[in-house]
Structures are given as structure tokens and as C-alpha cells.
From TrEMBL:
This is Selenophosphate synthetase. PROSITE patterns: PROKAR_LIPOPROTEIN (PS51257).
């Protein structure tokens, strides 16, 4: 009888310890994501680690004019190729000179348009943010959630600038506003539409202004994975 009596507390202690460990693990695994993280993951950020190369053409149509440049980005080697008409230049982003620094500025701009949701994680230490609900989107006039990010005043390619992202319950971006220097009035407002799924990445291929012939869009989009 004594052996049985003594074994009950030991079993109870082990069972309690297992339950405690399980609760701790669940608590760690289920850590609440921030709003920027929710947006990034809604656009497939978890699949980015599998992408070894991404290729895209950045296009802008304004009235009767057309501008286009193509990029091939080897994400593992940090190697970028830019193609504009018959002009091709390849460089490494870790080894820039005066010429490639300027070229890389164009790449940063075009990549930001393509992968802005992912920049919410990549740039998370460089901006502050706030979140609001039931806000009227500037183009569609639909009620949306709104995320505003404001970059710091030093460093980077967009110091002090602000971006307002408008999205629904699925955290997919529908519209955005760029405000240079965090000014109140919008510097640019466009839609986010024509989404395409490229190996798990949700990418908006078309951005339009409300009352303009302006279109910014992507073609030749390919995401190569391992």
C-alpha cells in the first residue's frame, strides 16, 4: 500500500510539469503578430526564404509616355541585373561604387513597389507605426483598416517619409498613400490590384491613380525557388 501511496504524488508532479511545459510552449508559439507582420504574412512572407531569384519588369504609363526597366535579383548572392532597352548592368549590392549606387537607388524604388508588404518586416527597426480601423479609403471610399508607417529621418532611401496602407480583414493591401516628409497632404495615392500568386508570394501587379492616365505595373514576373 505504501508504495502505491508514494507513487501517486510523483505521477501527479510529472503530469503537472508536462502541462506547464505545454502551456509555456503554446504561449511562445502563439505570440501575437503585430499589424505589419500580419500584412507581410498575408502576402506570403513565410515563402520568401525559398526564393532564390526574382525577375520583374517595372512599367510606368503616364498619358502617352511609357517607361520600363527590367530587374533580375539573385537574392542569395545579392546580385542584381538591370536591363533598360539595350543597356545591361550587373552589380553586387554589397559592393557599390558611384555608378551602381545610383542604379541601386532605382532598384530599391522598384522593389519597394513590388514587395512593400515584406518591407514592413525588413524595415521594422527603421519606422514607427500606428493602426486604425473603420477608415475611409481614399479611392474606393470603402471602410478599411489603416496602417501608417513613418520612417526615421536618417539613412535609407526614404528618410522621414510616411506611407498609409489600406486593407481589409484579410490584411491584403487595397490602396496606399505616399506622403513625402510625413506631410499631411498625399504625394501619391494608388490602388493595389490584379494580385498574382508567384510560388506563394501574393504580389499586386497593377497600381492606378483615381483620376489619371497614370499606371504603374509589373510584367515578366517570375519567382524562382529552391
Amino acid at each position: 500500500m505504501k508504495a502505491i501511496i508514494y507513487s501517486i504524488p510523483l505521477f501527479f508532479i510529472l503530469l503537472t510539469a508536462c502541462k506547464t511545459d505545454k502551456k509555456t510552449k503554446l504561449s511562445t508559439d502563439e505570440k501575437e503578430q503585430t499589424i505589419p507582420e500580419k500584412i507581410a504574412y498575408a502576402h506570403g512572407f513565410e515563402n520568401w526564404k525559398q526564393v532564390k531569384e526574382i525577375e520583374f519588369s517595372f512599367n510606368v504609363d503616364r498619358d502617352t509616355s511609357h517607361f520600363e526597366r527590367k530587374w533580375i535579383w539573385n537574392t542569395q548572392k545579392s546580385q542584381v541585373t538591370r536591363i533598360v532597352k539595350k543597356d545591361t548592368i550587373t552589380y553586387n549590392r554589397n559592393n557599390l561604387d558611384s555608378v551602381t549606387t545610383k542604379v541601386n537607388g532605382g532598384f530599391i524604388n522598384d522593389k519597394f513597389w513590388l514587395l512593400a508588404p515584406f518591407n514592413l518586416i525588413w524595415d521594422s527597426k527603421n519606422y514607427t507605426f500606428n493602426h486604425a480601423i473603420n477608415i475611409e479609403a481614399p479611392i474606393s471610399k470603402n471602410a478599411c483598416q489603416k496602417l501608417t508607417i513613418i520612417y526615421g529621418n536618417k539613412g535609407g532611401y526614404t528618410p522621414g517619409d510616411a506611407y498609409d496602407f489600406y486593407f481589409g480583414e484579410d490584411y491584403i493591401i487595397k490602396e496606399w498613400v505616399f506622403r513625402k516628409g510625413n506631410q499631411e497632404e498625399a504625394s501619391m495615392v494608388t490602388t493595389w490590384e490584379d494580385y498574382s500568386k508567384e510560388n506563394g508570394l501574393q504580389i499586386s501587379k497593377m497600381h492606378k491613380k483615381a483620376e489619371s492616365d497614370f499606371k504603374l505595373y509589373f510584367t515578366d514576373l517570375k519567382a524562382k525557388i529552391y
